[in-house]
Amino acid sequence: MGSPEFAVPSLERLVADGHEVAGVYTQPDRAAGRGRSLTPPPVKVCALELGLPVFQPATLRHEPALRQLAALAPNLIVVAAFGQILRQPVLDIPSHGVINVHASLLPRWRGAAPIPAAILAGDRETGISIMQIDPGLDTGPVLARRSIRISDFDSAGSVTVRLAALGAELLSETLPAWLDGALLPEPQDSAGATYAPRIEKDSGRIDWTHSAAEIWRRVRAFHPWPGAFTSLHGVPLRLLECWPLAGSSAGQPPGMVVPLDAAAIRQVPAERPRPAFAVVTGHGLLAPLQVQKAGKRALYAEDFLRGERGLAGVCLGGG
Fold first, then answer.
1. In the structure, what pLDDT confidence band is assigned to residue 56 with cuts at 50, 70 and 90?
2. Confidence of residue 317 (pLDDT cuts 50, 70, 90)
3. pLDDT, position 36
4. The pLDDT of residue 37 is above 90
5. DSSP letter string, the chain
6. Would you kindly state where each structural domain of the chain is located, as residue ranges?
7. If you classify domain 5-196 with CATH, what class do you get?
8. What percent of the chain has pLDDT above 90?
9. Non-local CB neighbours of 231 within 8 Å, separated by 6+ positions
10. Per-residue pLDDT averaged across 72-94, rounded?
11. pLDDT tens readout for residues 210-264
12. Do 5-196 and 202-307 come out as alike in CATH topology?
């Protein structure tokens, strides 16, 4: 049971390891793109390529969907970012229970969006937890964990790719012992639990009164979706990459575009795109490195500045 790209490596690994996949459950096709055409979830695309039966019930709470699932007689259900909360009638079906490939080091970041939450919080590491699902929200006991570092250059997109591969690997290593009854799940310490709420489309709106470091984390946490955005002369402007700078622009309001001096430019690591201007924040300056106006292609800061004469002194986010 899975839906987005994150779940694809786990499905592929189950098949490669020789497990019999009786069925693949995923979310219904959704309208997407400018044409709003129905688009299948990545897991469905993968399952069909592998010749596996696909099921897309809108919910598993209704009796017909439960009967259909029970008829497959699964020994085990593996979940990876499925997008539905599983109730007890589903959990009771497989003899070896339901296990989840969760993208955090539980009990930290239970919930729907653990990868953005870790970046927003400034965590220096995250990871994968293979856990047994119970009726709570990611509260079940943990079978295995493995961690990775989060670098200053990571976004939610790059961390997701790494964790998807790690999740498939850890799932492959954990399943044999679990199916043999040789693993003793470790109960979570709920005292250390934190929660990662669902990300909404408007979550990426930038508040320039926040600090440069906080906005920088938001840009990374919400890339590629929903994107961190502001506006320029009333036109939406996405920040694809940026860097926080020490220093201030005394007396200038948050959101105002200001020039950069050589000392500020040197604060941006050499391997990142070159800055060309900065934006005043509630604390410190933020240097956009790559931006995209609505309906236009993405541009590095220097190219964007060449096309936006008189940008200095403009306040972003108004109008």
1. very high
2. very high
3. 76
4. no
5. -B-SGGGHHHHHHHHHTT-----EE-PPPEEETTTTEEE--HHHHHHHHTT--EE--S-S-SHHHHHHHHHT--S-EEEBS-SSPPPHHHHTSSTT-EEEEESS-TTTTEES-HHHHHHHTT-SEEEEEEEE--SSSS-SPEEEEEEEEPPTT--HHHHHHHHHHHHHHHHHHHHHHHHTT---PBPP-GGG--EEPPPPGGGGB--TTSBHHHHHHHHHHTTTTT-EEEEETTEEEEEEEEEEES---TTPPTTBEE---HHHHTTS-TTSPPP--EEE-SBSEEEEEEEEETTS--EEHHHHHHHSTT-TTPBTT--
6. 5-196, 202-307
7. alpha beta
8. 93
9. 237, 316, 317, 318, 319
10. 96
11. 999 999 999 999 999 999 999 999 999 999 999 999 877 778 999 999 999 999 9
12. no
Half-sphere exposure of 257 (CA within 13 A, CB side): 22
The residue behind tokens 């699902």 is 133
**Four-way CATH pick for 202-307: 1.10.1040.10, 3.30.1780.10, 3.10.25.10, 3.40.50.2300:** 3.10.25.10
The predicted-structure confidence for 282-296, as pLDDT tens digits, reads as follows 999 999 999 999 999
β-bridge pairing 98-102 and 110-111: unpaired
How many Å apart are CA 60 and CA 28, to the nearest integer?
12
Please state the rounded mean pLDDT for residues 110-130.
97
